[in-house]
Amino acid sequence: MMMAAAGSIAIVPGSRSHAVPQSARDPAPAETPQTSAGRPHTWSTAMPPRGDADSTRPASSSVPIALSLTSDAGWQPPDAAPEPALGAETDAATPFGAKGSRRLLISGFAGPSTGDRNEPVIAGGMGLSWFIEDGFAVTQSLDLLAFDQRTSVRAGLGYSLTFQYHFLRRETWSLFAEAGAGLLLTVGDVPEEGSFFNFMPQAALGATLDVGRPWRLMAGVRWHHVSNARLYRTNPGRDAIAGFIGASLAF
């Protein structure tokens, strides 16, 4: 038997000689990677026993490596955006008065009747406004009304359909004109010597003001008429000039 330089070549009689690279027997230690937090990762390797049949294979093909990567810091997904408050997303993405936008209304009005009667009316209710074109809205509302008359106070329920045009719109305010009509049912006759069923033509001028999205305040002056259009024997009718105030919410 002949021996060459140690660790290089082995010659055995009756067998083939095999070259075993030094790097395959004594692999250099791998560098230990660092985490973003400065802690080392843990590497785990598993190497099967070397045999003569596999000794000439490159180390990269004969040595399977199982890799285990751990870190105390862990992986964190990106922070999700917070959910917007009610109405905020819609109002932020859609300018006020844009076509297709909708608003919930809460409003009321009060004022004296015209002429020598001086019989005030007080009303309050809720409505839904839908902008069918930019700056032009259709509003439906239900109101509770009270009429202070000379000899009695009459309460009633009214439904109104009005058309509202915001002829001047800015980011935080607008000016509008409104006109429409409604139906009124009362407990007793309104006005006195009138009827319990009446029509309510009405018109208004007003303004809106952004007080923090999605809310807007609204205020103005309203002309409010009550009459039965001569459906009954008498039709005295009544008119009132009232101030109104309210708020609207985008949704």
State the CATH class of the domain at 88-250. Answer: Mainly Beta
Q: How many β-strand runs?
A: 12
How much helicity do the residues have?
Answer: under 10%
N-to-C terminal Cα separation, in Å?
Answer: 94 Å
Mean pLDDT: 79
What's the gyration radius in Å? 43 Å
Low-confidence stretches: 1-18, 59-63, 65-73
User: How many separate helices?
Assistant: 3
Proper CATH architecture of the domain at 88-250: Beta Barrel
Question: Biggest β-sheet: count, sense, barrel?
Answer: 8 strands, antiparallel, barrel
Residue fraction in strands: over 45%
Order of helices and strands: EEEHHHEEEEEEEEE
For this structure, the CATH topology of the domain at 88-250 is Porin
Q: Helices and strands: which structural class?
A: mainly beta
Q: What's the arrangement of strands in the largest beta sheet?
A: 4-5-6-7-8-10-11-12
What spatial form do the alpha-carbon principal axes imply? elongated
Structure commentary:
The protein has three helices and twelve strands; from the N terminus they run E-E-E-H-H-H-E-E-E-E-E-E-E-E-E. With 251 residues, the chain is mainly beta. It has an eight-stranded antiparallel β-barrel. A three-stranded antiparallel sheet has the order 1-2-3, with no helix packed on it.
How is the secondary structure organized here?
Elements: E1 2-3, E2 9-11, E3 18-19, H1 22-25, H2 59-62, H3 88-93, E4 102-111, E5 121-133, E6 136-148, E7 153-169, E8 173-190, E9 195-199, E10 202-210, E11 215-226, E12 238-250
Antiparallel strand pairs: 1-2, 2-3, 4-5, 4-12, 5-6, 6-7, 7-8, 8-9, 8-10, 10-11, 11-12
